[in-house]
Amino acid sequence: MVTQARAVIVGVSGRMGRALVRVASELPAVRITAAVARAGSASVGRDAGVLAGIEPLGVEVTSDLPAALAVADVAIDFSQPHATRANIAACRAAHTPLLIGTTGFAAELTESELDAAAGDIPLLLAPNTSLGVALLIELVRRAARSLPPEFDVEIIEAHHRTKQDAPSGTALALARAAGEGRGLEAQQALSGACAGGNGPRRQGEIGFAVVRGGDIVGEHTVLFAGSGEELRLSHRAGDRALFARGALTAARWLAGQPAGRYGMGDIVHEDQYLG
Ligand SMILES: NC(=O)c1ccc[n+]([C@@H]2O[C@H](COP(=O)([O-])OP(=O)(O)OC[C@H]3O[C@@H](n4cnc5c(N)ncnc54)[C@H](OP(=O)(O)O)[C@@H]3O)[C@@H](O)[C@H]2O)c1
Question: Closest residue (by CA) to atom 32 of ligand 1?
Answer without folding.
Answer: 38
